[in-house]
Amino acid sequence: MHNNVFDTHVYRAAILCGLCLMTLNEFLYRAGWVVKGFEFLTIVWFLVAKFPRHRWSLFFATKRDMVSRELHEMHSCFIVAVCTFVFHVLGSEYGSYIVTLTFGRIPVIRLFYLAMMVHTFTYVMAVLVLHLLRGCAMSIAAHRCLILSLCTVVVLMIQLTARGYFDYHELKPLYATCIWAINLSCLAAIYKYPVEQTKMYYKNAKKLDREKRKEA
To answer: Are residues 42 and 81 in contact, defined by beta-carbon separation less than 8 angstroms?
Structure first.
């Protein structure tokens, strides 16, 4: 009798813990989409602020079209913004799919972290290849995002070793903290160029307005 009551309480506690964990995972997943939303806004900014002036050269300009350092920086930041958003969406979606596979807990853990490492390396290669194909010098944002991506690979490798081969799961909070810090740092690096350009635009607009008032 007492054992049955104890088992019932344990079962209910397990259900509650599962619901809390599910809620946390859902929260993190939705928070991830908030970050992706901000990444997408960067692309929208380029289309609104730069496309009317540069047109299709924003997408297809080569080295001979980039006649100034400012143009190199603009194209580099656009490449990084697009790659970061696309790879972030793809990685999030097929990462979520991998964790739903049912062919064994440890194999799924190994597959997940290995796939994320390959995905991150592919992102790095995509950024580098696009810069090479277009003859574009890498901006500070591009350098920072690539360095952060290499940090991501290190974190993934640590988790792959700890969880996949030693069945040690106590690093999960630290892993989540590191990944979020890296993602937010990457977002800040991408936003630096649009924010600076927007501030410069309004500064020049105010300057022109003051000059017009003086002339009047």
So the answer is: yes
Cα end-to-end span (Å), the chain: 94
Neighbours of 103 (CB within 10 A): 7
How many angstroms separate the CA atoms of 112 and 110, rounded? 5
The residue with tokens 């592919």 is 122
Q: Mind listing the pLDDT tens digit for each residue in 93-146?
A: 888 899 888 888 899 999 999 999 999 999 999 999 999 999 999 999 999 999
Rounded CA separation 153/125 (Å): 13
DSSP string, 174-216: HHHHHHHHHHHHHHHHHHHHHHHHHHHHHHHHHHHHHHHHHH-
For residue 183, give the nearest of 95, 92, 110, 108 by alpha carbon. Answer: 92
pTM above 0.85, yes or no: no
Placement of tokens 């022109």 in the chain:
208
